[in-house]
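#random but structural
TW: two for the price of one
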Amino acid sequence: MARAHRPDVAVLDLQMPGADGVRVATALRDELPDCRTMIVTGHGRPGHLKRALSAGVRGFVPKTVSAQRLAGIIRTVHAENRYVDPELAADAIATGDSPLTAREAEVLEFSADGAPVAEIARHASLSPGTVRNHLSSAAAKLGAENRHTAVRLAQAKGWV
């Protein structure tokens, strides 16, 4: 729809049906550089905010924001300013950065639905042994006894 309508501001849900709002924001940034993006979310975990900002998102707000306040934030983003909900920002600062490398986070994300190592390897374009190494390293960094617990811990922090 953004390609067809060329919006000034795209308001995205972090967890859209069949898509990740941060990935959509990245695609919009690359394909429609004049379109500013913001995310409205019911899952405002600190890692999500950091990923969104890295993707060029200009606004990040909880779904509980009033319609009147949301309209004002859209205008703020349209004016090329940034708005991040203060509570979400404070939580992100308090949580700190993810200890995971980008590849470890990616592999953990692929394993979130219980996919076998061979399938994760195909999706990540890695060998099964490399996938096992990344999963083991991620679990160790998160103090998890296995990859399933590591995924849950990383998801709770918003790192995947």
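TW: number two ↓
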Amino acid sequence: MMKQLKWLSVVATIGMIFVLLGGALVTKTGSEDGCGDSWPLCEGQVIPSEFTFEMVIELSHRLVSGAMGFIVLLLAILAWRRIGHIREVKFLSISSVVFLVLQALIGAAAVVWGQSDFVLALHFGISLISFATIFLLMLLIFEADKMWDSESLIIKKKHRIEFIALSIYTLAVVYTGALVRHTESSLVCPDFPFCINTEPAGLASYNFQQWVQMGHRFSAIILFIWTIVLFVKIVKNYKHSKVMIGGWSIALTFIVLQALSGALSVITMLNLYVALAHALFISCYFGMLSYYLLLSNRSTYKEKHGLLNKSDKVIS
């Protein structure tokens, strides 16, 4: 049973990546209205009589998202029944379904009624949280077979707080990135990393789109630097923990790739493959970050309930 559950969790996680990339593809190709203002039907039909490129993109995204709904529901039920004794499983099982439904409802509302750019920008962040819950379920399923030792890991209080702050900040950066897309601000600053403006007024002459673009760039640079600094702290404080060093090495790799793909998006004038890679890397980075939120929560729980071993030390 565990073998099948592992395979299902892997399929669900990979499937959610396709949902994330599919949503990004819809936005980047301008296919939001590919099926008109009809949902869940396309142009009011189960099978449209005529197909356009935008319709194929939008309809494919809906089909993948719909299929994932059933897979995630099945994963949540089986995980609850099989490894529900693990403290985080029931919460994540419920959250995975709730956020997937919420993501679908926001997408449907945007199609039927339309939404402002500021509301639409929330969609990718919701999708990211949905992906993270499913990714964490997968890790817990594999963890249940003792494939790696994370139970003995105790994360220091100051690092737990920093993980929470970094997670919230990452979602804010993701929101600004989505806002860049929805406000069509992607190429208003063709120079990198700064938006070179020849106007005497300098920053005062920036229009709204330029402020959106540069706001995202500067917030992303801070995220990049913060991750590097935190990685150094992890190496210094957890040098004997494979879970911490290995995981944060992967996270650092993703943030470097994220930064490079962001720069290449501007340089290549929004090459579609580069833009999709940009969405993929931040999704994987946030997934890794979410795992350390889970481990941090465990450390807090152990500390609060007096479950620490004599050899464990939690340093504030």
